Amino acid sequence: MSKKAKPKWGWYDAGFYSPFPFSDDNFDKIKKKMPNVDGLTEDIRSQLQEAAIKYCIESDRILKNPPPRLSEVRAALTEIHGKTETLIECLKQIDTISLGQLYGEAFPDNLELLKRIENKSSDIHKLHSIAQEALNRLKQDRGGRPIIKQPLRGLICHLICIYESSTGTNATLSLDQYEEKYKGKFYEFTHTVIEIIDPEEIWSNSSLGQQIKAAIKLLNPSDKNETDIAKDKEQILQSLQRMPTIKD
Q1: Helix, strand, coil tally for the chain in percent (to 5)
Q2: Is 29 within the bounds of a domain?
Q3: Domains held by the chain: number
Q4: What distance lies between CA 244 and its chain's CA centroid?
Q5: For tag attachment on the chain, is the N or C end more exposed, with fewer CB atoms within 10 Å?
Q6: 89-93: which pairs have CB atoms within 8 A and are 24 or more residues apart?
């Protein structure tokens, strides 16, 4: 029997990271994996730095402080829905002496206190309805392991845009059928970047190749034309231009 999900009270959506600069050696290693690039401009360095920071934050958030599952979200909303309903019933039936004590007063001879409790009750009714609407919208938890590869997928999407913009060539991937290994210039570029920013995380050739393949497909959907795809990638690049380059 599966355990009943409980609300993940107190969870806060925040990641932590230790900001670090890419060293000149790091940048030199990356440059060697980028065809048609003589040197890394400040823009490219800044984009790589921002992509690395986003990855570190997301990795910390997902792996060390995982967000609530849908089942846990449903448990929280269900509890809010149930408790607001109970409170509404309590306020409907509360006696006048207890009502006065809630506000540290004797039963008032005016309507001010009653008006205040009516206003609060209205807010509780709204919260009760909002909780029900949220429960109706919420999808079912399909189970399975948490999405631990999400940070890597996001990083690869950023690297695709950086690579294509800088080199003027498409990010592609090939599978050597004889060696059963993924290969290609973009694979080597991605592998090098990941080794630098997250040396403790070891991805097999197969796992990394599959993630690169999925990211390339994600950024090049078959139902979009080349112009729209280019615009989408440009927007991703713009999101990587907010962080100034950190120098040694």
Answers
A1: 60, 0, 40
A2: yes
A3: 2
A4: 22
A5: N
A6: 91/117, 91/120, 91/121, 91/124
Does 126 fall in a domain?
Answer: yes
What tokens appear for 179 in the block?
């060696």
- pLDDT score of 20: 62
Task: List beta partners, residue 182.
Answer: 175
DSSP single-letter state for residue 21: P
Reference 122, options 82, 160, 84, 72; nearest CA is: 84
Contact 127, 84 (CB under 8 A): yes
Hey, which residues does 175 pair with through a beta bridge? 182
* Same structural domain, 86 and 102: yes
Q: Element (H or E) spanning 120, and its range?
A: helix 112-137
**What is the phi-psi region of residue 89: left when phi exceeds 0, alpha when psi lies from -120 to 50, beta otherwise?**
alpha
Joined together, the tokens standing for residue 90 give 């309590």
Q: Please enumerate in sequence order all residues whose Cβ is within 8 A of that of 231, keeping only pairs 6 or more positions apart, or say none.
A: none
30-35 contact pairs (CB < 8 A, 24+): 30/189, 30/192, 30/193, 30/196, 33/185, 33/188, 33/189, 33/192, 34/163, 34/166, 34/167, 34/189, 35/167, 35/169, 35/185
Q: Please tell me the pTM assigned to this model.
A: 0.63
Q: How far is CA 51 from the centre of its chain?
A: 14
CA gap 148, 76 in Å, rounded:
23
User: Do 89 and 116 reside in the same domain of the chain?
Assistant: yes
- If one compares 157 and 69, the residue with the highest pLDDT of the two is 157
User: Does 102 or 38 have the greater pLDDT score?
Assistant: 38
Task: Let me know: does 192 contact 40? Beta carbons within 8 Å.
Answer: no
Which tokens in the block code for residue 141?
């938890």
Q: Which residue has the higher pLDDT, 146 or 200?
A: 200
